[in-house]
Amino acid sequence: MATDTMTPRQTPGQRTITRDDVAGWNLPELRGLRKLLGPEWYRIVHGVFTNPLSVAGLIIVTVFILMAAFAPVLAPPSKLSPDPYLIPRDGYGPVPKAPGTEWLKNPPAVVPGWYKLLTGKDQWVHIMGTASGQFDIWYGVVWGSRTALFAGLVVTFSTVFIGIIVGSISAFYGGWLDDVLQRITEIFMAFPFLLAALMLAAILVPKFGRSIWPPTIALIVFGWTRYARVVRGDILSAKERDYVLAARVTGAKDNRLIIRHILPNVIYPILVLASFRLGDAVLSFAALSFLGVGTDIGYADWGQIISFARDWILSLDTHWYIVVYPGLSLIIFGLGWNLIGDALRDILDPRLRSVRG
C-alpha cells in the first residue's frame, strides 16, 4: 500500500524557497560597500563581522577603546596632578589597601554620575585597591588602556611599515641588494628579542628619560624582521605571475609595480601577522616597564602596576589585587587581538575557503 506524501500547499504565483535562499539570509549584501571595497576586501570585512571569533575579539577591543576614550570620565584626574597619566596617590604608605577602602588623600577632582549610581556613595573609594606606595589601581588600569593602545599601535604600524619596505626592495630587486638586506635582517634576528629590546631601552633611557619612548623605540628596532621575511617570501613568488609581467610589458615603473600590482596581493598575511603581534607588542612593552626600563614610576601602565607587587610576592594571597587586575587587562587585551587574528587567518586561508565552499 502506497503512503501518501504531504507537500506544502503553494498558491499560484508563489515562489518556492530554496536552500540557496536560506544560505543568503545570513547577512544581506551591501552593494554599495561591495563596490567601494572591491570583492576581496568586501569578503574579508564580511567574514570579520560574521565570524564568531572575530566578533568576540572586536567586542573585547572595542571595550578597551571605549575605556581609553572615556578615561577622564571613568577615572577623573586629580586637581593636583600636572599630568593625567600619573596615577594619583592616597598618601605614601608602603602597605597596599584592599578594594573598597576609602580614598582619604588627593582623590579625583569630581565624582561622576556613573560612580554614584554603581556605588551609591558621594566620596571616592579605591575600587580595585591600591598598590605599594598607595597608587590607585583603578586609575592605572583605566588610563593604562591609553598607554597600551598607543604603544601597541605605534609599534605595530612602524614595524609593519619598515618590514614592508625592506622585504619589498629585497625581493623585487634581488641580487646583491637582497643579500645585504637579508644579512642585516639576520643580524637583528640573531638577538633574543626581549633581551635586545631591554638593552636598547636601557641605553635610550638616559637620552629620553623614563618615558614611553625608550621601550617603544626598542620594540620597533627589533620587531620589523619577521614582517620583512614574510613580505620577501610572498613577493618572490608574486613578481613572476602573469599580471605583474603584463604590467611590466606595458612600461609600468618599479614603484608602480610594487605599490599597485604586487603589495595589494601579498598584504593579507601581513594583516594576520600584525593582528597577532599587536597584543605581543603590548605584552613586551609591559615587560620592559616591569623590568624598570619603561615608563616612570607612577605612570599609568599595566606593567608598571604589576611591578609594584614585587615586594609582596610572598603575600599575594592577601594582596592579590595588585597583580590580578592589571594582569587580567593584559591577558584580555591580547586575547582580543589574537581572536581577530585567528578569524582573519581562517578567512584568508584558501584551503579553508575551499572546504567551506
CATH homologous superfamily caption of the domain at 137-356:
MetI-like
Summarize the amount of helix as a percent range. Answer: 55-70%
Global Rg: 27 Å
Task: Report the biggest beta sheet as strand number plus sense, adding barrel if it closes.
Answer: 2 strands, antiparallel
| CATH architectural group of the domain at 137-356 | Orthogonal Bundle
TL;DR of this structure?
The chain has 357 residues and is an all-alpha fold. It has helices spanning 19-23, 31-37, 39-48, 52-69, 71-74, 113-119, 137-173, 175-190, 193-208, 213-221, 225-238, 242-249, 254-266, 268-290, 302-307, 321-348, 350-356; strands at 101-102, 125-126.
Describe the structure in your own words.
- By secondary structure, this protein is mainly α.
- The protein has a domain at 137-356: MetI-like fold (Orthogonal Bundle).
- It is built from 17 helices and 2 strands.
- It has a two-stranded antiparallel sheet.
- Helix 3 runs antiparallel to helix 16 and helix 11 (225-238) packs across helix 13 (254-266).
- The model is unreliable at 1-8 and 17-28 (pLDDT under 50).
Which features characterize this protein?
single chain; 357 residues; mainly alpha; MetI-like fold; two-stranded antiparallel ribbon; 64% helix; disordered N terminus
